[in-house]
Amino acid sequence: MAPVKKNVLITGANRGIGLSLCKAFIARNYNVFGSVRPESRDDPSVAELRKTGASVIEFDVTDESTIAAAFDSWGDKPLDILINNAGAPTRPRMWDEVTAEALIDKFRVNAVGPFIVSQIFMPALEKSKSPKIINIASNAGQIAANKDGKYMAYKVSKTALNQVTRSLGMQMEMTKSKVIVAGIHPGWIPTKLTGMTGPDQMDVQIPKIVKTIESIGASQNGGFMDAEGKIMEF
């Protein structure tokens, strides 16, 4: 009897790291579900996502009602891996360009979104034998590593995401849940979100990330690590 395929849901799946993760997990024989925003359904990038063989799910990580509707359509199947990848871009760069709107927008997408998606899909995760929530984090969220203060709104939101990862992981352990929560800094990969800048290569980093996700265990619950699984300071 053939082994049952594991189910993985990747948010922000129609481009960049999300799309590459979809391709990598499909190549490793997972059932892959990729989320896209409803307003993006006619974008060519969504057609590219469909070509990978992934099942496309529509929701906006900043709109709780759309996430709830997506969960309602999920059915009774378990969710083995949830990868919270959807994110807001790094700009504005300098402090005097930062507005309240920019701070709130980054916070909603990069910190609140992953938490709400995890919360709403928790019943599906609990049906898995070894469920994992993976938050695509950033070394930009490390307070001690902040050397120039640039991209303040983005950094603040990623610091908040680290706290979400740590706190949720601790609470999963406290309540004896099977769910393991971890944050992964994927590297600085050129994508639309980074303005196509960065020294790391997608085809090098993605296999490392997938290997790390598959190897994460209970001892790393609530942890923050790089693409190779090396522990990083929050």
Automatic annotation (TrEMBL):
<dbReference type="Pfam" id="PF00106">
    <property type="entry name" value="adh_short"/>
</dbReference>
<dbReference type="InterPro" id="IPR036291">
    <property type="entry name" value="NAD(P)-bd_dom_sf"/>
</dbReference>
<dbReference type="InterPro" id="IPR052184">
    <property type="entry name" value="SDR_enzymes"/>
</dbReference>
<dbReference type="InterPro" id="IPR002347">
    <property type="entry name" value="SDR_fam"/>
</dbReference>
<dbReference type="GO" id="GO:0016616">
    <property type="term" value="F:oxidoreductase activity, acting on the CH-OH group of donors, NAD or NADP as acceptor"/>
</dbReference>
<protein>
    <submittedName>
        <fullName>Uncharacterized protein</fullName>
    </submittedName>
</protein>
<comment type="similarity">
    <text>Belongs to the short-chain dehydrogenases/reductases (SDR) family.</text>
</comment>
